[in-house]
Design brief:
With about 375 residues, this protein is an alpha+beta fold. The chain has nine helices and 20 strands. The protein has a six-stranded mixed beta sheet with strand order 6-7-8-3-9-10, sandwiched between helices. A five-stranded antiparallel beta sheet has the order 13-12-11-14-20, with no helix packed on it. A five-stranded antiparallel beta sheet has the order 15-19-16-17-18, with no helix packed on it. The two termini are about 35 Å apart. Bound molecules: adenosine-5'-triphosphate.
């Protein structure tokens, strides 16, 4: 996120104090050819995206690719330089149906949770419900805290909570006003790895129950695969691919998208007879021109160890034990770098042993070589 804390607090205050929509109606959120420039920087470039009511869309991509800017455009704190944003089919960026941030029915949740330290958890959640009569606001806030499993900690202060609990208070505050659209900017990045997984599951359950349309920004491909109904992968301000998790993992559009979801063993080769021929065997190269350069990406768990004498010959060069899996480096003649394999079985053979290698074809991806 490029902006400083004061601005974020300002956005938060405006958004969480907006008038409350009477009931939760998940909205359709549509970006139509949306671009946004900051001076010379083209932060978002011609993005078109239609998010269905109640859908959870994960926005994934490297730092600086425009994810936060896209959220800020949806929230209304930035106005697109070009294109339109529609909520339930109405242009909220300009014209008679234009809506300022506080009237879009959009909730925001930041990576640092932005809880007010001087307010109790209950008061933090009630902050977003100030337009309701106090008893109603309190009832709704208690309900929201119960929904995230923190009913007993309503009167505690944020500093008395663990990171995971603070995240849940922030979630309760975000969903209590029943937003039509919830925008979450790296909502789990402040939590340690183990806690993150658990909190993600809980958050997902609350989002599903709230039936809110949701964009979750993340750097973490695993998080996107776990949470998203669909994943929108961004690069340099543009959308690279928008697909369901299994589709984007198994059928990435290019080598860059493929690299985002797993480490790959990459081998360059030339297309002959509609196949790429490598020291590891020949692989189908559908759609690639005869004689063109291709890049073959093999996921580490697609490299299977066999007894010496079967498959492609190699030599076990190193092994790292990671508990559930082992990472193995295997030297193969004709390849510049050793192959990285990921095995769920313990290899007993000593380093330097001759081994055989088989390749699981379902873990092989073939693309035109970048720049080819
Ligand atoms: P991160 O994952 O690091 O938060 P991001 O994908 O959210 O990154 P953005 O914060 O949207 O990326 O930034 C996109 C581009 O726009 C970057 O090049 C960034 O430096 C630039 N940018 C963002 N906000 C501003 C701003 N207020 N003024 C000028 N440039 C900005």
């Amino acid at each position: 996120m490029a902006d400083g804390e004061p601005l974020r607090q300002g956005i938060l205050r405006r958004l969480v104090s907006r008038p409350r929509t009477p009931a939760a109606f998940a909205a359709r959120l549509t970006f139509e050819h949306v671009s946004h420039r900051y001076g010379e920087v083209e932060a978002v470039n011609d993005v078109s995206l239609d998010i269905a009511p109640g859908e959870i869309l994960c926005l994934l991509g490297p730092s600086g690719c425009g994810k936060t800017t896209l959220l800020r455009l949806a929230a209304g704190v930035e106005t697109p330089t070009a294109g339109r944003i529609l909520i339930n089919g109405q242009d909220v960026t300009k014209g008679p149906t234009m809506l300022p941030p506080e009237r879009r029915g959009v909730g925001l949740m930041f990576q640092d949770f932005a809880l007010f330290p001087h307010l109790t958890n209950l008061a933090n959640v009630m902050f977003g419900l100030r337009d309701l009569p106090r008893p109603d606001a309190e009832r709704e806030a208690r309900l929201a805290l119960e929904r995230v499993g923190l009913g007993d900690l309503a009167d505690a202060y944020p500093h008395m909570l663990s990171g995971g609990e603070q995240q849940r208070v922030a979630l309760a505050r975000a969903v209590a006003p029943r937003p039509n659209v919830l925008l979450m900017d790296e909502p789990f990045s402040g939590l340690d790895r183990r806690l993150r997984e658990e909190v993600r599951e809980d958050t997902l359950a609350v989002l599903r129950e709230s039936r809110v349309t949701c964009i979750v920004v993340t750097h973490d491909p695993e998080e996107a695969l776990q949470m998203g109904d669909r994943i929108a992968l961004m690069r340099a301000g543009g959308l690279v691919q928008v697909d369901e998790p299994e589709a984007i993992y198994h059928r990435p559009v290019d080598i860059f998208a493929a690299r985002y979801f797993s480490m790959l063993n990459e081998v360059l080769a030339t297309v002959r007879d509609a196949r790429v021929h490598t020291p590891l065997g020949a692989f189908a190269a559908p759609g690639l021109a005869e004689g063109s350069e291709a890049i073959v990406g093999i996921r580490p768990h697609g490299i299977l160890l066999r007894p010496s004498g079967s498959g492609v010959p190699g030599r076990l060069e190193s092994r790292r034990f990671l508990g559930d899996v082992e990472l193995l480096d295997i030297r193969v003649e004709g390849l510049e770098t050793p192959l990285r394999a990921r095995s769920h079985e313990r290899t007993r053979m000593p380093l330097g042993s001759e081994v055989g290698i088989a390749i699981d074809p379902s873990e092989v991806l073939v693309f035109a070589a970048p720049g080819a």
